[in-house]
Design goal:
The protein is mainly alpha-helical and 100 residues long. The chain has five helices and no strands.
């Protein structure tokens, strides 16, 4: 639940050379997905959050690590890996649910 400490200050986005909001989005997704009541809509939430981030023009994460280094709450890059995994799983589930 360390992701719940994210205060949405934007320091991670400002420090990232790509202006990626991945750490912020990943922290929020990790926090909400860890809650029992957040599990039923986990896939839909992750897809929506990543699509919104992409639609707003934020850059892609290149794992430079500047975001985590400047985060006042010391949110780790591990959350980005979790977000990427959750997004991939949700995308595959979404694809196959539409095919049937």
């Amino acid at each position: 639940m360390d992701a719940a400490a994210c205060i949405g200050c934007g320091a991670c986005v400002a420090a990232c050379p790509n202006a990626s909001a991945m750490l912020f989005v990943a922290a929020k997704a990790s926090h909400l997905n860890a809650l029992p009541q957040g599990k039923p809509e986990k896939d839909r939430r992750v897809l929506a959050m990543v699509r919104t981030m992409d639609g707003l023009g934020f850059g892609s994460c290149t794992n430079v690590g500047e975001c985590s280094a400047v985060c006042p709450k010391e949110i780790s890059l591990d959350h980005i890996a979790h977000l990427n995994r959750d997004y991939l799983v949700a995308s595959v589930k979404n694809y196959f649910s539409k095919v049937e």
